[in-house]
Specification:
Elements lengths: L1 H22 L9 H12 L2 E10 L1 H13 L13 E6 L12 H10 L2 E8 L5 E9 L5 E6 L7 H12 L8 E5 H9 L9 H13 L2 E6 L6 E3 L10 E3 L11 E5 L13 E4 L5 H12 L8 E6 L13 H18 L1 H5 L12 E5 L9 E4 L2 E4 L7 E4 L4
Length: 391
Amino acid sequence: MATQLLKYLASFRKDQAAESRHSISTGFPSLPKELRLMIWGHALERQRMLHIRVEAKPEIAKLRVTEHRARISFSVIPASQETFRAIVTGHGVITELLSVNREAREETLRFQRVHLPCTFVDANQNEMGSGTLHFNPEHDFIRLSSQWPFQDTFLNFIHHLKTKFDPRHIGLLNLAIDQGGLDGNFMFPSLLSNLNDEVKTSVKETLTQLHEVFLVNEPRVGRQLLSWKSGVGTTEVLYTRSFPINSAVSTFKRIKRDPRAIGDDLKKIYTSTGSVTRMLCEWQELLTKYGVTSSRAKCKLLLTFDPRLSHDPIVDCTDGAAFLQKEQDQWIAEGGEHAQNENLEKAVPSVFGFWLFPIEEMAGLESESFGALEMTNLSGHWPELGLVELP
């Protein structure tokens, strides 16, 4: 299966290269400018999942620790002061069109109008230097994680994104957040009295205007279970090949309905502990605590398998094929009769990316707990597929 994946991806890259060579013809510069700009714009209209970790600047963190130990109220810092630093991770977060020519660069900077100073890190979190992240709030999703103290990270970031870094003063429109992000920010509203009024306004307006919210559940175990050997308290033996695998690649395309034959697999989906509707409840309670009485945001449950427990972050098709081959080898060695009786020709092909479920329609789903995992029947809700094409 890994070999088949490599062949497919190699063919895909050849097709891409041929298309690229064909599109960059000698006649392109002579096209009318309006047409060239349409071509650049079409190339830019790709959705991305941008991972941003927001930390307090060292001097701010030191101040907060001192205040916390002294058990005094946190200082009210002027709204104009940036108290955070943005850490950006992911493969391909810098758009290639920035280095094509002047016209392409100008069009890219216009389209990706938010220019956020940041520190770039690689897939293993090694710092790669400082720079600027360019993105478009209407097209891109921000996978946001923040550390304590949240008024200096999460809230300060949202405020400055809206009032300083977005020339249209819109800010965040599409958010992806996991359980850790919800838990941290769920605790903070009790300290809202320490917030500057300008920050309160920015945060409330941002949470009210959100277009889409992805509540992320990213288990590291459960795509393949080998009875007690998996160490999660279940005797289940299964290989859910259809469960999408996460990667470090930022760009993705959305397919309204996963076209694969995943119906049987959806009957037993293992997720991280916490019911699939718990996150929605916490998100709605969070909005209430911040004073948001009405929200237009469409909330969806994002499910993806995190392979990093047994493999380095996946950044290209070579990494992807290696991970699938490792899974297959383990399945053959330890899957027993389940592996022996499997018809690989009928197996659901694996993909890299994520599932999106309509979480607001999933109230009342019951889950069976197995320590760090929960098993849920999701067959009543066929998911959308966020497909990542590995380079």
